[in-house]
Sequence to fold (182 residues):
Amino acid sequence: MRIDVPAATGIGYSMAKKQSESKVTEPKAKPTFEPRIVVFACNWCSYPAADNAGLARMQYPANIRIIRVMCGGRVNPAFVLRAFELGADAVLVSTCHFQDCHYMFGARRAAENYERLDNIVKLLGLEKERMRLEWISAAEATKFAKVIREMTEEVRKVGPSPIKPNGKPQPLPDRIEETTVA
Fold:
């Protein structure tokens, strides 16, 4: 808005100059990369930990999609690879501690599956920061929030996943039933 004042006073000029100076803005910062993280969480331990972290209003990035599974040992390596194929930048498999597993062998099976999957991911040329296995009990809500924060920062450093269909990420489904098996 410019105020017309006689030129002799110089007020109009100085106000217009101040307005134009105030419109000068810093160049916009490049938007930071927000990784898309899929979390396979055990129904008995890790999922309640995530729930408790939310109930306690603990701060962690909201860029995760949690998929509740009955047991971390039931997470087939194909599920993790499918998450990457659908555009996930990282995948976290979170399960019970060995001694707390409701299915007695599930946490051990998750560890075995993770070892196999780790070799496959290396063959694909993905960074190790993109996949993680964690043992989180229902009482460890702070650990869940901490792991999510750490993983988000690690994935931000390595950047977007090189595995994206058509070079673009697909929207991650809200439910497993929405995925189609190729």
About this structure: The mean pLDDT is 84. The two ends are 60 Å apart (CA to CA).
